[in-house]
Design brief:
alpha+beta, EC 5.4.99.-, Pseudouridine synthase, Structural Genomics Hypothetical 15.5 Kd Protein In mrcA-pckA Intergenic Region, Chain A
Length: about 240
């Protein structure tokens, strides 16, 4: 007999959305199991059940992977209850139900992965997968060598010390008392870079994520995206499997 699992888990593993987003879709009546609307989160299904999301049967969609240069002023979500612009608005020609891997703040620009591969997305965002992410920040003031050293050793935020970060000053304007700082981290706490810079007395004015693992924004301008190559997808999956 096929093993039964919770519907939202099966949806996430199939790449429909994250587990939390899948739960919301179930509650809102977007999901049918064997032809009947399934709006209860406790329901369990097996591989023998016919699962449909908005009329599309599970596993009928091909897996797709995109690298997106997210602009500032855009929500890292597929929907927003305040009718603000969301990342999927920039993919009008993509028919698959893609969603962001992780998130970038509303006012942060830069590299964001978009996919419908739920299994890979879950692995890439799990805390145990220490994937380097490089951010470039415009900050108030010019950090000192001691400030940079503190970032490299870890900053205590909300009672917990951050992992050591790679940090350096790219440029500094002494007249305007502004600096451009590069910071590479592998954690994914909320507003982490902003909080780290604020903690050393140099609040962020503008923030951009330039790399995610081995991926970068080369060849893209803000709002553009490209599909990942087979080699890049294979490398991402290999990275996750090695962790």
């Amino acid at each position: 007999m096929a093993e039964a699992e919770r519907l939202q888990k099966v949806m996430a593993q199939a790449g429909v959305a994250s587990r939390r987003q899948s739960e919301k879709m179930i509650s809102e009546g977007h999901v049918k199991v064997n032809g009947k609307v399934a709006n209860e989160l406790g329901i369990k299904v097996t591989s023998e059940d016919k699962i449909e999301v908005d009329g599309i049967r599970l596993n009928e969609e091909p897996l797709v992977y995109y690298l997106f240069y997210k602009p500032r002023g855009v929500i890292s979500s597929v929907k927003d209850n305040k009718d603000r612009k969301v990342v999927t608005d920039y993919f009008p020609g993509v028919r698959e139900r893609i969603y962001p891997v992780g998130r970038l703040d509303y006012d942060t620009s830069g590299l964001l992965l978009m996919t419908n591969d739920g299994e890979l997305a879950n692995k890439m965002t799990h805390p145990k997968y220490k994937i380097d992410k490089t951010y470039v920040a415009k900050v108030n003031g010019i950090p000192s060598n001691d400030d940079l050293k503190a970032l490299r050793q870890g900053i205590v935020i909300d009672g917990k010390k951050t992992a050591p970060a790679h940090s350096k000053i790219i440029s500094a304007d002494k007249n305007k008392q502004k600096a451009i700082v590069s910071l590479t981290i592998h954690e994914g706490r909320n507003h982490q870079v902003k909080n780290m810079m604020a903690e050393i007395g140099h609040p962020v004015e503008k923030l951009k994520r330039e790399t995610y693992g081995f991926l970068d924004l080369y060849g893209l301008t803000s709002s553009q995206y490209r599909e990942l190559s087979e080699e890049e997808v294979h490398a991402l999956k290999s990275t996750a499997e090695r962790k």
